[in-house]
Amino acid sequence: MIKESPLTNTARTQVYDSARQGFAPLVEFKEIWRYRDLIFFLVRRDVTARYKRSVLGVAWTMLNPLGMMIVLTIVFSQLFHAVQSYPAFLLSGFIAWTFFAQSTQSAIQSLVWGGDFFRRIYVPRSIFALAAAGTGLVNLILSLVPLFIVMLATGITIRWTVLFLPIPMLFLTCFALAVGLLISTAGIYFPDVVEMYQVALLAWFYLTAILFPVEIVPEGYRFFVDYNPAYHLIQLFRQPIYEGMIPSWESILLAAGISIIPLLISFWLFVKKSDEFAYRT
Amino acid sequence: MSLLTAPDQRMQTNHNEVIRLENVTVRYRLPKEQVRTFKEYAIRRIRGRIEHSEFLALNNVSLNVERGEVFGLIGPNGAGKTTLLRLVARVMRPTLGRVVVIGRVAPLLAMGAGFHQELTGRENVFLNGAILGFSRHEMEEKFARIVDFAGLWDFIDAPLRTYSSGMQARLGFAVATDSAPDVLIVDEVLSVGDIAFQEKGLARIQQFRDLGTTILLVSHGMATIRKMCSRAAWLLHGEIRQIGKPEQVAGQYEKHMEVQAA
Q: Which chain B residues are within 8 Å of A15, Cβ to Cβ?
């Protein structure tokens, strides 16, 4: 039986007025807060639905990266055996990059191709980017387990400095959101951007010095690495694991700046243009 | 537009009004040729050759719907009915004009939105509820009632892909209509499920109406419009051709369509 009265008491009646928009980023922020439970359900959907049909189920979220790490370690350790405790170096950078690549791609995917959904119901659209980042974070945290297993197996000590990791994770999330929202905004007008991003991501991967130490990048190209925000953010994540030290204040502040400022700008742009999602596609 | 504007320039007129459209125009801009890459766009922009054909889905439409009305929308395909529903559902903003909606809107066009085939019925109920704007806590409270209404207790922990399309529709309908909204948007959906469930759904909508829910109904069936509605509007090419008693509007519309067909 229906208990609630439909005549919502006037004190807290929602009023929607298309003419009274307010400051768009703030309105979006409030809406995200109102729909915060949706983030949880979307993350749960993405984490659990992926391996639902497999026998081992959710265990794959750890087995998958573990298998990948073993392969990478075997292949690349031969190439770069000069680098000390190479597996820790490679894998710490690799899981941070995987987080970045996956969350931006899936944010773009759901925002640019979610057309039908967005024409049927209102939800604050940026919530899909947040959910994509949330899923990425769950995967990143779960991949720390196989990472530590591989480190122990290859005789590398795990230092207490790994407790610092939530800070670089936060900045990486901000940066991934910034890129995801920006590319999605561009993608409303030019779907080609989405395809271009796939290719750009591959180039970006090599310019972030994940597989190899930055020293082997020729001087002439070093410029690209130095001005690559992803490189600095991933360094911040890598240092506590690989070098066993807490990054310097300067690098923490730099990372904060290059992740939070782009996020603010691209969130603002996205929100300004997000009405177009219902008009296009 | 700042946040500091006086909060109460809202609805000074009639406090029974639930939906108001003021001179609403929706203009879709369709590029004449598909310009889908940067390069092409840049070249054409420089040459000043971006041409758009404009399509007016709604043209200067004004409309008021009061609390408790069952308002029918009729008209041929492409007349702007769905666009009008989308404006009320807050899915899109008008190009020009103003849309005001008071209270919680339940759009039945979003029935089953976000359903995922690999998740169980239970998981989908919570996900769908969150999409409709309910908190996890509210959904826990509603859950048993929803499954009761859908009559799906035996399957609730099975993945959705094992459901028939009728069962999925029942679940979607049950989530969307569990609590009475202030405004219910119905877009020809009552053709879901078997006859028994259709009647159950119709009964629920009537119950909402008795509780004071305002209903916006799009239908091609003139019998439904005559039977359910208290007022109806006939849309044609994005404009309101006629508005009034469903009997008259439906009659005129049918006459018009016969002439067209002949």
A: 10-11, 100-102
**B103 and chain A: CB distance < 8 Å anywhere?**
yes
pLDDT score, position A176: 98
Sheet of strand B183-187, all strands in order from the earlier edge strand to the far edge: B105-107, B183-187, B214-218, B70-74, B231-236, B239-244
Find the residue in A nearest to B120 (Cα). Answer: A49
Residue B50's Cβ-count burial label (10 Å; 0-12, 13-18, 19+) is: middle
- Of the residues B38, B148, B183, B213, the best mutation for testing chain A's interface (the one with the most A CB atoms within 10 Å of its CB) is B38
Of B86, B101, B207, the CB nearest to A16: B101
Task: Please report the domains of chain B, with CATH numbers, ordered by start residue.
Answer: 24-104+220-261 (3.40.50.300)
pLDDT, tens digit, for every residue of B16-56?
Answer: 889 999 999 998 876 655 656 667 777 766 666 556 677 88
Stretch among A80-94, B21-35, B231-245 having the lowest mean pLDDT: B21-35
- Interface touch A4/B92, C-beta < 8 Å: no
Model pLDDT, residue B37: 67
Pairwise CB contact (< 8 Å): B102 & A14: yes
CB atoms within 10 A of CB A121: 22
Q: Using an 8 Å CB-CB cutoff, list chain A residues near B105.
A: 16
pLDDT in tens, A111-122: 887 777 888 888
A160-163: long-range contacts at Cβ-Cβ below 8 A with a sequence spacing of 24 or more? A161/A239, A161/A240, A161/A241, A161/A244, A161/A245, A161/A246, A162/A240, A162/A241, A163/A240
**Interface contact A223, partner B, CB < 8 A:** no
